[in-house]
Amino acid sequence: MADPSLLHRDATARETDALTASNGTGPAFASAESSRFAQTSLPLRQAPRRGAPPQIHDVTEKFTRACQALDVGQLVKDEYFTLFESIGAIEIMDPKMDSGFLQPGETLEDDFDPLAPLLPEELIGIMDQLLGYEMAWHTGYPLSQTLFTSVYIDRLLWPESKTIPQAQFYRGDIPVDKRPGTLLDVLRAYCLALIKGCDYVIAKIMARDYFEEEDFATHTYNRVLFVQAPIDVFLRELDASMEMIEDPDLEIDDGIRSAIIARLQFRKSFLCALDPECPLEILSDFWPPVLPYIDQVNNTHTLGKSVPGSFSTKIQRRLASTVPPRPIVQVEFKDALQTLKQLCTDCEEATRFKDLPTDPLEYQSFLWTFASRQPAPLTYSRSYLSNILFDPYILNAPVSLPLEDVKSFVFHESPILDPSNWALSPPRNPLMPKPPRLQFALLIDEFVERVGQPYLDLWVALGQNRCRLRRMLAHVIIAWDMLQQDAVFVDADLVAYAFQLNISEEVMDGPLQTWVYIKKLWMIEKVIILGFEQDIYLPDEHAGMYYFLSLMANKRKDALLRCVQHNNDRTVQFLRSSHFEDAQSTSEKLSFIDSEFQQATGISAFAKALHGFYTIANYLHLLPSPKRPFSTEDLRYELRMKPFLSLQPSEVPPFEEFQAALQPYGSYCDPSPSLYEDFKQVDSKLWSDIGASLKAAKDAFAKVKKYGAKESNAGGVEQAWNKETQGMLASCIALGVAVAGLKSAVKDIEPSSGVQVKVEIPPAGADKRYVEGWIVPKILKG
Amino acid sequence: MGDDTDAKGQDGDALQYVQYHGSKEETYLPAIRQLISKDLSEPYSIYVYRYFLYQWGDLCYMALDSASELIGVVVCKLEPHRSGPFRGYIAMLAVRESHRGQGIATKLVCMAIDAMVARDADEIALETEVTNKASLKLYERLGFLRSKRLHRYYLNGNAAFRLILYLKEGTALKRPLGMEPGQEGQMMGGPQKMEEYKGIARDAGVA
């Protein structure tokens, strides 16, 4: 049976992963760590003591005797036998669970001879099949069901060889006439480089946050993937193979010859691109060369001939795993190449990160945009970008990245960040108060220190798969919520010292808390938008969730408005005191803040318009609305608001307020008669509110578009930024059309009559929405 | 809901809805296993069934035809969740293919929910494949909402939705009393989930 201490730890890690966010990246996750320790105070079985030699006792007789004390069907379960353990338990002699069980006539091992000569077509066939499995592994399947089913790979890896020359399809000495020929040697070189590539992939992924099984399976079943051998060894083997194939004495069809060379070239370029030692500056040189070889591989795939016998599930029996042999994953070669191409283009895109200006807002735009790429980047590509982001060269920038972020919103040309503040010395007499400007420096240093972890948490979250991003953001928000409480105190001190210096008007009210709040609200909005994107909300919930989104964006808008006003005030102050350069630079910064302000305005207004539309649709019973006998509106509201209930200031409106906003005419089943009056009146508040919101949204997004990506600190992802901004504008127009359709459908409506239209909700991920998180319905004639 | 215990099957055959009991293991467990593993790529060991049925047999309901053949079954558990609430969990639900579309699954789930309500549950959770429209519909009609999407949750690489039903006010704010050894039941409701299976098998010394 398994080692219980291991299992418990494993189980706990899995548990906490749903609750907290990451596997121990720092203080913000300390709670996860401590809960893990807290669990050890529970009555756990004692961990086996290390070092002592194992003692084996025969318990057969005892066990048999104990069993006789039980009635048939009577069960004994101790409190340590968990669900986790029950799922891991297997039944001996059940062919689906017991990996040692052989069906009548079945052999334990395969009889495939990996030293048997190959045809050139078969070489191509095997290489392509391996590539297919490699990509299946990249999409999340374990090695045991993919690459490790190859007899060739198995022979190279087991028994483990001390040196690469020893890693052959055979071990030890064999007669000369049995030695593998050229084509097998070429296959060996290909396999070696493939295995080394897997080693590099695992190294890169494990260097960052990833979630075993969910994202990627790093398990190698006790096989060592040539971890120690340097890359040159593999490149040399590939070069030598290419020479052998190019040798004119080798009798082989020219088309096949170049097809084999293309595969070796691919392997070489791909291995170089995967090399984790590759320096940051030249990363981007390595991906473009891979792509042409992928095309060549694709074009010559039909030349290959498969060798089904060279892959077997039986190898799984010898891997360090007790999972019964599982079927080999089936992959279409076409799909595998698509995955490979996507991997290469995503990684190439990731290398652009290093060319971004040293600006945390540009970084954030890049991370968000990368996470939003369709199809979703694979785990390797995400780790690849994370490794660039967390490269010391990027992270140890000469400026504090979080402080740069703060500065962009609230401290532009501020006396609080005056470099001379940091040059002041404390008074010799420690009883004397420190000069206020030095206090500014100390307070800011303290805040920067405090903000570091929550700031990194946000970046870590942006590197996760899309589902986890949504869940992890909900936790990051809590960390920022606590940060906001702390910022209030720092702000109070800053304002007090500014007062002492008589420069109160140069410092905005509550600058740090305003900044934290803006970031926090942005994350809350993203959690809701991701919910729409991931189809979390049912159609009859859309009105409520867009209502809540609108509230959040509106709060961000208000906070940003204060930044805009402060920026304006500062410009005027500089002009008055004839500091024209400062005035100029301050007013230039306004475009960024105003662009953010317009963005928030647009989101708030558009979400409000959608809230209005879906509310009407609910009254007209145009959306499926289940009966829900076990639930009530307020219980569902509580469930939806759960991630935000603890936030300060309070963000979740009381249920009554929410209900009043959602059901302005009373219940959907029995609305007040005024609803029908308002339906028919083209300029009733019902319609004019939606119209005004839509217009406000369009105006705001148009302004954002005019500012452009660069001013919005998204210059590094201009194309995607443009597409999204354009998508928001298009969504506004589409909603306008839907509203018009609804309006005309109800122009003669009576309480007793229905409407002759249908609402069509565009599905997620099918390219039917202008922007995935914004569900703009269509009105169809019923 | 769930007060009448008879329903007419398609062929007019009256179904009987019966609560499981440990004393019936020999009679029903083989049939339960067979019915549930039909939809799974890999079987659960008998210990998985016993894990639930031994501790929460009273939350398992079966639909039997007139010949006492098993037509449908629901298997659940109910215990304090680590985040605080007293959480019910619907672990398995299956109805014989020939009898689907008659509301048998809904009836079984309703009975399980009623039983969990009677035992003071705060909430009920489960997972189901994002592509399993019938299952989503069944639970959403009863009042469940989707709370999370879980990437590559199942063996076949498919994603899942976690569905939650709150039964009591204040559930969202519940915090654990001390530390509860709550073992999250992340299981199926569809094809078998791999994480636990693999995680444990790695260490179990039966090769």
UniProtKB/TrEMBL annotation, chain A:
Superkingdom as given in the UniProt entry: Eukaryota
Residue ranges constituting the NAA35-like TPR repeats domain according to the UniProt record: 365-757
Location, primary (coarse class): cytoplasm
Record's subcellular location: Cytoplasm
Every NAA35-like N-terminal domain range: 73-232
GO CC terms in record: NatC complex
Keywords recorded for this protein, A-Z: Cytoplasm
Family, as annotated: Belongs to the MAK10 family.
Protein name: Amino-acid N-acetyltransferas-like protein subunit Mak10
Organism listed in the record: Karstenula rhodostoma CBS 690.94
TrEMBL record, chain B:
GO molecular function: protein N-terminal-methionine acetyltransferase activity
Top-tier EC class: transferase
One cellular-component annotation, GO: NatC complex
Compartment(s) of residence: Cytoplasm; Nucleus
Domain N-acetyltransferase: 18-168
Catalysed conversion reaction: N-terminal L-methionyl-L-isoleucyl-[protein] + acetyl-CoA = N-terminal N(alpha)-acetyl-L-methionyl-L-isoleucyl-[protein] + CoA + H(+); N-terminal L-methionyl-L-tryptophyl-[protein] + acetyl-CoA = N-terminal N(alpha)-acetyl-L-methionyl-L-tryptophyl-[protein] + CoA + H(+); N-terminal L-methionyl-L-phenylalanyl-[protein] + acetyl-CoA = N-terminal N(alpha)-acetyl-L-methionyl-L-phenylalanyl-[protein] + CoA + H(+); N-terminal L-methionyl-L-leucyl-[protein] + acetyl-CoA = N-terminal N(alpha)-acetyl-L-methionyl-L-leucyl-[protein] + CoA + H(+)
SUPFAM superfamilies according to UniProt: Acyl-CoA N-acyltransferases (Nat) (SSF55729)
InterPro entries: Acyl_CoA_acyltransferase, GNAT_dom, NAA30-like
EC number: 2.3.1.256
Keyword Cytoplasm recorded: yes
Signal peptide: none
First-listed, main subcellular location of the protein, grouped into a coarse class: cytoplasm
Keywords for this protein: Acyltransferase, Cytoplasm, Nucleus, Transferase
Classification via CDD domains: NAT_SF
Family the UniProt entry places it in: Belongs to the acetyltransferase family. MAK3 subfamily.
Record's protein name: N-terminal methionine N(alpha)-acetyltransferase NatC
Organism, scientific name: Karstenula rhodostoma CBS 690.94
